Amino acid sequence: MGSDDRWKWVREDGVCFKCLSSKHRRIRCKAKKCGVDGCNAPHHALLHTRKARTPAASVKPDETVLVASSVSSSASVLLKVCPITVRGPRGKEVNTYALLDEGSTISLIDDDLARELGAEGPIKPLNIKGVGNSQREANRRLVNIGIRGKTRSEMFNINARTITDLKIGSQSVSRECLRLKHLRDLPSSVCYDDAKPRLLLGADNWHLIITRALRIGRRRQPIAARTLLGWVIQGTVPRLTCREDGETVLHIESASGRSDRDIRTFASRDEELTELLKRQYEIDSIGISLKSRPRRDEERAVDIFQRTVKKVGEQYQVGLPWKDDNVRMPPSYEMAARRLRTIERKMDQSPEFRDAYTAQIDNLLAKGYAREAEGTEREDPKSWYLPHFAVRNPNKPGKTRLVFDAAARASGRCLNDYLLDGPDLLRNLPGILFRFRENEIAVSADIREMFLRVKIDRRDQPAQLFLWRGDERHSPPR
């Protein structure tokens, strides 16, 4: 974008000439003057018009700054781009490239790539704020995908927001880089040609993008950084060993705040009023609103239930709603063993607690809700150890309830990360209250040990292992 186009944009949007902000007028702005080539005019440096010079052998094109902007430059700088393999919820895998950007608060995936993988999710508005630029994306999805380095075997599940076009230029890394002394023993996979990233990994997935080891040469030579996705060559390189579309300025901040679970909107005043009206109409239409169309992941959860549910004796059996058919769980034994030792210390301090806790475990075994695992189940790719703890209700003294913690994390993951939520089948409270008033007598019922009475498919039982050894502290947990 040339200076003339920038002036046109400033005049059309009515922003301040000195700081490019729309919150005040130029006469009230305290920003410094231009300063480019000694210019004292009251405008921003990006609006400075350079005087025509005698053409030289090499002319630097105009710079462009977007959310992820590409501008030509005489410098050759490689960004942290890594070859990866992404996997969709149905197991389809695609080889592509990811930009590892610690300046972004969220992760983004190209909309076309998400559709290619069959990844779908809830729609949320998204505001992308970059350097001197803001972009509104109204209907963006939050999708869950698997990702691993192209030469790595470990797959990581991440959440990413879809975007129409990432606008990240392509770059190439020549094999000439591997001739440098400090890069000689790196795998050839760190080199690529015309790689255009279709995925941006931000600080919300910091464990994947942070540098865990460095290879550093001389000052004007590239460096190599090791991440969980593999080695990445980045930094300054000679122009003969690098071809890139231009410089890239990245800093992305989403309308979802610092995480997708902590929603903070940057919407304008009109959008806030629209949201208030929407909520008012939702309240007015309680009990008569049409049900929303089920999401793809909800349909998958229902399909798994319908395919696996069956009656076994007097009980029902069902499979777990996996997000991925070919799931491979990370090691979780040590995490569960640490939690068990914590419970055992508490049992040693309180005989009353020990008796109540042991009685709960004995009850599970006696009624067939639990059994001792076989050796093959512990080696299953789905094997996961659930830590357990006791919960006591102050309104029910003397009663102890055993809880298995599916949110406990090992290697940064938990069992819940691999399972679908499924559709919300709970009745809304206003509907319950309305039906409560239809007749003279209302009946309330409860099923004792309801969840324990539902059996889990034998193929999925390795995902619900737990450790226990009672008073036999000299023996390893089983």
Task: Describe what this molecule looks like in 3D.
With 478 residues, this protein is of the alpha+beta class. It has 3 domains: 1-52, no CATH class; 77-250, Beta Barrel (Cathepsin D, subunit A, domain 1), CATH 2.40.70.10; 296-464, no CATH class. It has 9 helices and 21 strands. The strands form 6 sheets. Strands 3-4-11-5-8-7 form a 6-stranded mixed β-barrel. Strands 2-14-13-12 form a 4-stranded antiparallel sheet. It has a 3-stranded antiparallel sheet with strand order 10-9-15, with no helix packed on it. It is globular and about 85 Å long. It starts with a helix and ends in a 22-residue tail after the last strand.
Biggest beta-sheet profile: 6 strands, mixed, barrel
Q: Label the overall shape.
A: globular
Radius of gyration: 29 Å
Helix/strand-derived class? alpha+beta
Share of β-strand residues: 15-25%
The CATH topology of the largest domain corresponds to Cathepsin D, subunit A, domain 1
CATH class call of the largest domain: Mainly Beta
Layout of helices and strands:
Elements: H1 3-13, E1 68-71, E2 77-78, E3 81-87, E4 93-100, E5 108-110, H2 111-117, E6 123-130, E7 133-149, E8 156-163, E9 171-173, E10 192-195, E11 199-201, H3 206-209, E12 213-215, E13 223-227, E14 230-236, E15 242-244, E16 247-250, H4 269-284, H5 296-308, E17 310-312, E18 315-318, H6 333-349, H7 351-366, H8 375-378, E19 388-392, E20 400-404, H9 429-436, E21 455-456
Parallel strand pairs: 4-11, 5-8, 18-21
Antiparallel strand pairs: 1-16, 2-14, 3-4, 3-7, 5-11, 6-7, 7-8, 9-10, 9-15, 12-13, 13-14, 17-18, 19-20
